[in-house]
Design goal:
Order of helices and strands of chain A: EHHHEEHEHEEEHEEEHEHHEH
Number of domains of chain A: 3
CATH architecture of the largest domain in chain A: 2-Layer Sandwich
Oligomer: homodimer
Radius of gyration of chain A: 20 Å
Largest interface: A-B, 88 and 88 residues
Distance between the termini of chain A: 16 Å
CATH class of the largest domain in chain A: Alpha Beta
Strand content of chain A: 15-25%
Largest sheet of chain A: 7 strands, mixed
Strand order of the largest sheet of chain A: 2-3-4-11-5-6-7
Helix content of chain A: 25-40%
Structural class of chain A: alpha+beta
Shape of chain A: globular
Chain lengths: 362, 362
Amino acid sequence: MSEKFYSYHHLFSFTKAVLEKLGCSEEHAELATKVLLSADLRGVDSHGVARLSGYVRLWEAKRANMQPVIKVIHETPSTAVVDGDGGLGLVVAPYAMQLAIDKAKNVGTGWVSVQHSNHFGVAAYHAMMALPHDMIGITMTNASPLVAPTFSTERLLGTNPICVVVPAGEEPPFVADLATTTAANGKLEILQRKSQHAPTGWIQDKDGNISTNPHELKSGGALLPLGGDRDHGSHKGYALGAIVDIFSAVLSGANYGPWVPPFPAYVPMPTEMPGKGIGHFFGAMRIDAFRPSEDFKFHMDKWIRRFRSAKTVDGEEQVLIPGDPEREMEQNRLETGIPLLPAVAEDLQYLGEKLGVSFEID
Amino acid sequence: MSEKFYSYHHLFSFTKAVLEKLGCSEEHAELATKVLLSADLRGVDSHGVARLSGYVRLWEAKRANMQPVIKVIHETPSTAVVDGDGGLGLVVAPYAMQLAIDKAKNVGTGWVSVQHSNHFGVAAYHAMMALPHDMIGITMTNASPLVAPTFSTERLLGTNPICVVVPAGEEPPFVADLATTTAANGKLEILQRKSQHAPTGWIQDKDGNISTNPHELKSGGALLPLGGDRDHGSHKGYALGAIVDIFSAVLSGANYGPWVPPFPAYVPMPTEMPGKGIGHFFGAMRIDAFRPSEDFKFHMDKWIRRFRSAKTVDGEEQVLIPGDPEREMEQNRLETGIPLLPAVAEDLQYLGEKLGVSFEID
């Protein structure tokens, strides 16, 4: 069955109404919807409205608090730790990023580590909050353990993304948003739906052997750190994922490593919990805390143009700047709508019926 | 021919004397030697005393200033830009890292971007300066363009390492120091000496085809970003290398991208120079700017022990913590000495004769 297109406006109203039914304030429902749908607009379909029912199941399992009292529990002029009170990461993260921005306004940079949160959607949304302030934005989060460190058969890390966003002048901003694995879990889901094999270097089986079966994680297999194997630098991907885990959770007092609470509500909680909820990390650096913004932007434009105009290998049109594909996707989808797989649309319709919100599939 | 072992003390006296002959103050010569030899101790042979003659050639070519007046040219409470005055990165980097540490003492974190510097040796030395202060240390640097971004046949980035160092309690610190390429250039040099092929995914030829020839860079080939190819996430390695370039150079006013001055003095300088020298970036975050150090260290120890005791794939003894191999190497080499290839020892002997410093090969 083919995908059907839904307008941003339609999905926005529906999602916001669903979140209000769960007890979110109008303000939180609107913010969470904006964050969630920014994933759909940017083409990160695995982190968008397709996850809405996952958030609802977290709420049903009493693993997410829809009326959180988010608060700062420790701070210095350039740092803070935020307690998300078990709220949706979709609202906790913008709070923490705004705090990082405010601190950067005062002392040049701001760094906020967050405990007791939940899945925060796409990292890029939060980091990009820095752009209108002429700041560099940084976002990280830990996540359900699906990744085996180099030489391990156990899953001890999440796909732990790093996002770094840099403003430019006339050019669009540089937006790098990357899981620290060879391939994000969402890409496996696409292969599963299409019944295709994964390239080697993406996953291993339960004993650590090479596997190309996209269903391998259901039988004890694991995603592999960026690099794939030791010869190709998987110890670097593992180190990057570890840094994200430490900054997001060991620094804040959240759960880390294999003890991160799983996003799917049907997966049992870890029996041991060394911290609270999942953890995130946010940074904001004011450009003019280093050099005048205009100078920086002149050179950032020059950087971007030089890379974009590089000679390409045969068959490739252009060297891309991080953020190019997602920006193009966003422009398209705002015009033509967001495509949803029939299974996703049905899931949303079912959700709507259960909560008394019309999804109106016509 | 086999390697011969030299004591740390011997190599220290020799290197320091050579640097003094170039005009370094005793203080700078001692510091630069300490930084340079920390690479040899940690087993990063490509960045240690084997490079000494390379630094001398930079001085001969008037590309390095042995009596730099290093100064802060811009600052806020948590940030600064440092002008290295064309000095050796080996002395400029510790100055800038110390400044980051001092700022962290005052406002929780410190972030310093550096222009007008040269190669700074191993990143880990500088980042590890944070450890005695119970701080997380971060170091980055850009470098001579040897790396082709995804889809490019042109070399536009250096191996641009990221180093993150985290203190623990009873466990040794977490020390991740990684080039943002599949393999560092030093590994190619080892294959060249052994006349062995490189694994696929490390390098491409001048047209962007897969190559396993470790000499490929001499005929227009390039190192590949971590990931190797698009299917295996090379766009992520490219983004990470780009972030290092931007933080180190676009933020500070150093040269970036293809315009970074080359380390080998026989390679002509770029005809265009949008900045000054090469760039670095340093960060220090006080642990207790987030949570009490004792709490953090308790959990960091727990993190390290859980990962180190993970079940391994057949044939592997243990899951390693970033920094484990280098720390073990350092303990060994302090006892047994530092092995140098005959070619390196001869090069040092020749250097000594030229400058009137005895290398005393016995």
